[in-house]
Write a structure and sequence with these properties.
Layout: H1 3-12, E1 22-30, E2 39-47, E3 50-56, E4 69-73, E5 78-81, E6 83-88, H2 103-113, E7 119-124, H3 129-141, E8 148-151, E9 157-158, H4 167-172, E10 179-180, H5 183-195, E11 200-204, E12 206-209, E13 212-215, H6 218-230, E14 234-238, H7 242-251, E15 255-256, H8 268-276, E16 280-281, H9 285-294, H10 299-318, E17 322-323, H11 338-346, H12 351-358, H13 360-365, E18 382-385, E19 399-404, E20 407-411
Parallel strand pairs: 1-4, 1-5, 6-7, 7-8, 9-10, 11-14, 14-15, 15-16, 16-17
Antiparallel strand pairs: 1-2, 2-3, 5-18, 12-13, 18-19, 19-20
Helix pairs in contact: 5-6, 6-7, 9-10
């Protein structure tokens, strides 16, 4: 009996269908892609991990299969394409040193961090590459239940640029330094990380140190980006400051991993440069609220941080910049996504725009043409929500089922 089938049956008392991998979801509201009106009382049929039919329940018949078909009654529920989280870290205690952890414990951590929130794909923006590869391999074989994981592997810091909050963690877990001192060293490491399986590269354009922010040497940043682009890999940057954003732009970085609160509001000229350079933004707004509370700043200062974070996203959004959803979980332990959706809405983003940041936009940005939409022939990566996020944006965080490649990888109790 497959673990994913067992999860669905135990958690929701759905009748098992032996070793079935064919599913029909019926009587749901279906948003096939952002901006299109939903199919009311709709159905989706899945065969061998692929969507074979989508439309009104009354018009969609189950396939004639040798294997049994498991039917999920989704009355009152909403189906969207599976979500992407474009900023996570495979760095929690439960995920590090994975070879010495049980598959069940790792699967449990994957659920807490990702699958219970509807994520079928995540982009890891700094971890131990060999460890992340181990987890990915076991997800592929089915011994660990989790999302598709893309990764940048180890990030790139300039000499002396390991962030002050990262250094103790690296020492505690005996993780080698990711600092690079010379251009040849950096370029060689880019090529090695790609050979080892990294789908992207990340630089720390601005590293927070005890005495301020250390900017990466400009020529070094440019050399890393050029080497990554030569390998057909996108580059993420941690900016920290306006100067870090400018350095990222000058270096040809593709995606900012955060808004950058240090330095105040973003001037329109900077945002226009970002838009002209086709630079994407992963806001991670909730992370700044978590950091403010960790630092025990006053409620007023916390609110000032959050107002600035929302404002930076607002001006980028109003300029037509490309936005990718991300939360920085694995660095933070705030896994609930409801606050992030509310803050994105506060910045002026509509439900279709937020849904796009979770689905079609990352699929397009990262070159995954068979996911991100619900249509015949697409991969069966789905989020089944308990209610309609068009009515309440936080409904995006209330997940009933997460389905990845036609398998139920999370089912709510």
């Amino acid at each position: 009996m497959r673990l994913t089938t067992l999860i669905a049956a135990v958690a929701l008392c759905i009748p098992l269908a032996g070793r079935a991998s064919d599913i029909k979801l019926v009587h749901a509201r279906i948003y096939t892609e952002p901006g299109k009106p939903p199919i009311e009382d709709g159905a989706v049929v899945i065969h061998d991990g692929v969507i074979t039919a989508v439309g009104p329940t009354s018009s969609i018949k189950g396939p004639h299969l040798v294997r049994a078909l498991t039917v999920y009654d989704c009355t009152g529920m909403t189906i969207t394409a599976g979500f992407w989280n474009s900023h996570v870290h495979i760095l929690t205690d439960e995920l590090l040193d994975a070879e010495h952890k049980t598959p069940a414990s790792i699967s449990g951590e994957m659920q807490k961090m990702f699958t219970r929130w509807g994520f079928t794909t995540v982009f890891d923006l700094a971890s131990v590459l060999s460890n992340t590869n181990y987890i990915r391999q076991h997800i592929a074989t089915g011994s660990i239940v989790g999302p598709r994981i893309l990764t940048v592997g180890e990030p790139f810091y300039g000499k002396g640029g390991t962030p002050v909050y990262v250094a103790p963690f690296l020492a505690e877990h005996h993780v080698p330094s990711a600092e690079v001192d010379t251009i040849p060293e950096a370029v060689a490491r880019v090529h090695q990380e790609v050979r080892d399986g990294a789908e992207g590269i990340k630089i720390f354009a601005g590293s927070i140190e005890s005495d301020g922010v250390l900017l990466m040497w400009r020529d070094l940043a440019k050399a890393i980006v050029d080497a990554a682009h030569g390998e057909r890999r996108l580059v993420f940057s941690h900016p920290s400051t306006v100067e870090g954003v400018e350095l990222s732009l000058d270096s040809g970085v593709d995606i900012l991993a955060h808004v950058a609160l240090m330095g105040g509001p973003w001037p329109l000229s900077l945002v226009q440069r970002m838009k002209a350079a086709h630079m994407s933004l992963v806001p991670t707004l909730t992370m700044f609220d978590v950091e403010a509370k960790k630092a025990k700043v006053s409620e007023q200062e916390d609110q000032e941080w959050m107002d600035l974070a929302v404002h930076q996203l607002k001006v980028f959004h109003e300029a037509g910049g490309q936005i990718l959803f991300g939360t920085d979980v694995g660095y933070t332990d705030h896994y609930d996504t409801a606050e992030e959706y509310s803050l994105m809405q506060k910045s002026g983003m509509s439900f279709p725009e937020i849904l796009a940041s979770l689905t079609t936009t990352p699929a397009q940005r990262f070159g995954y043409t068979h996911t991100g939409r619900i249509a015949k022939g697409m991969d069966a990566d789905l989020a089944v929500l308990k209610s309609d996020p068009a009515m309440d944006i936080t409904a995006l965080s209330h997940v009933a089922y997460t389905i990845r490649a036609g398998k139920v990888i999370y089912a709510a109790k």
